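[User] At your convenience, examine this fold.
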Amino acid sequence: MTEVSHPRAALLENVTLVITVVSGVGMTTKWLYPVLSFALWCVGYSIAIAGAYLRQNRRNMALFTFLAVNTGYGAINWM
């Protein structure tokens, strides 16, 4: 695996993952407005997957995609 990319890519991934975790918790516990929470979740995971793609890190891309599908499916069913 090659890890050559913009130095801020790792920081961007971490920040967006925090955003998506907060929005996922907001969706499942219903303390965030559902539409806002889902929008944050979509944007956060999209940026995290794009960051992993730009870093050419296939393991992280697969992990983030797996987490996005599973948490999204669970949260949508919960709502």
In short: The chain has a mean pLDDT of 70.
